[in-house]
Amino acid sequence: MPGREGDTKVGKMIIAEFSIIPIGTKTTAVGKYVQAALKELEKQSSIRAKPEAMGTIIEAENLGDIFKAVEKAHNSLFGLGIKRVVTEIKIDDRRDKEATIESKTQALQ
Amino acid sequence: MPGREGDTKVGKMIIAEFSIIPIGTKTTAVGKYVQAALKELEKQSSIRAKPEAMGTIIEAENLGDIFKAVEKAHNSLFGLGIKRVVTEIKIDDRRDKEATIESKTQALQ
Amino acid sequence: MPGREGDTKVGKMIIAEFSIIPIGTKTTAVGKYVQAALKELEKQSSIRAKPEAMGTIIEAENLGDIFKAVEKAHNSLFGLGIKRVVTEIKIDDRRDKEATIESKTQALQ
Amino acid sequence: MPGREGDTKVGKMIIAEFSIIPIGTKTTAVGKYVQAALKELEKQSSIRAKPEAMGTIIEAENLGDIFKAVEKAHNSLFGLGIKRVVTEIKIDDRRDKEATIESKTQALQ
Fold it and tell me: What is the dihedral of CA A20, A104, D98, C71, to 10 degrees?
């Protein structure tokens, strides 16, 4: 994310989790679809995306950037021939303290 | 939703579920916050919102309308003094068949 | 649920939401699998199950009864030839006030 | 987890994600409650728990072990004076292939 590191002020970040399931895939191996969605997320310079075992963690400065990125990721599966997609987004928006993916994870260790 | 009833063609609908939790509320009774979010959803003419016990079901013609409505609902809680909000959206987007809140529920009965 | 109706004291109820997605189904029409899971939930006398558009609402007196019912519902899909299942449970456990599916929904209307 | 490493047969693992939100905490800083739940998960020798920014990933051989661990984690918050807890579990149960937290994450990189 441009200007994040080395800045004195980072600003509040919204942390979200995104997951996507294609339905009607014949096979249980849906990795190529999840990767396509992830690739779309990673193209968006306004967010930071970190893949995890059960979903992708997204960090962004505002909700609009998250939704714009998720919409592109979600729609990318229809371009691959999928006819039904279940997408989930969980947003943790804290306005009284700065938080990043790292600070939230470290706070638990 | 304008033009939905009485039309011969309804078009594909996306069904989603929205839920919101305010964090740091002193009390366990968060109904007034959930109601404020719901009121914002109901103001949006581009979606249909139906409250349930564990979330609100949303029906809309496209994802952008859902995200626009959810963003307003989510942000409304900060206007009420809440400093941290966890919002979840689950989207079931099926492009090969028309579906509504009613058709999906009836199919299970 | 034994002793629920007609009693003067109902006791605290836990409200939960259950949803299930079979992966690798060839078709986008997964209703028969969702119905099989729902049928298992409805067999369990220790919980009450109410199907909605995006999931099934469960009401029970304790968490163990919910997990026992969900495990049976989840496993029923493997008996139908499904090889991968994604199941979600969201539990709202409030110990300072009685709540039912109806009271939670009515509070929002 | 006993016997996991160095064995020739690991067996199928179920991957799940757990998250917990205490309601009515006065403060937005709920880390101490999340840590208490995590501590309970880590006490359970039948599962493996890995904290992430938006939830804890659990790996176990069967669903019963996951539910037993989650129930203890969920209940631990009431012991700390919390009166309402929202817990979520998402289970990815794949029976046709071995999967671990690491294999699922690596497949996306």
Answer: -70
Q: Which fold has domain C27-96?
A: Alpha-Beta Plaits (3.30.70)
Q: Name the CATH topology of A14-104.
A: Alpha-Beta Plaits (3.30.70)
CATH architecture classification, D14-96: 2-Layer Sandwich (3.30)
- At the top level of CATH, the class of B19-27+34-94 is alpha beta
Q: Which of B12, B66, B67, B70 to mutate to test the interface with A (most CBs of A within 10 A)?
A: B67
Which residue ranges make up each domain of chain B? 19-27+34-94
Contact D55, A54 (CB under 8 A): yes
CA distance D71 to B45: 41
pLDDT of residue C107: 78
C30-85: pLDDT as tens digits: 999 999 999 999 999 999 999 999 999 999 999 999 999 999 999 999 999 999 99
Residues of C in contact with B108 (CB under 8 A): 31, 34-35, 38, 51, 56
C-alpha distances in Å from residue A45, one per residue of A48, A93, B44: 7, 20, 30
- Give per-residue pLDDT as tens, C88-107: 999 999 998 887 888 888 77
Phi, psi of D56 (to 5 degrees): -110, 130
| A26 in Cβ contact with C26 (< 8 Å) | yes
CB burial of residue A89 (10 Å; 0-12, 13-18, 19+): buried
B51: Cα within 13 Å, side-chain hemisphere: 21
Do residues A17 and A105 make contact, with C-beta atoms less than 8 angstroms apart? no
Mean pLDDT score of chain B, rounded to an integer?
89
User: What's residue C104's pLDDT?
Assistant: 84
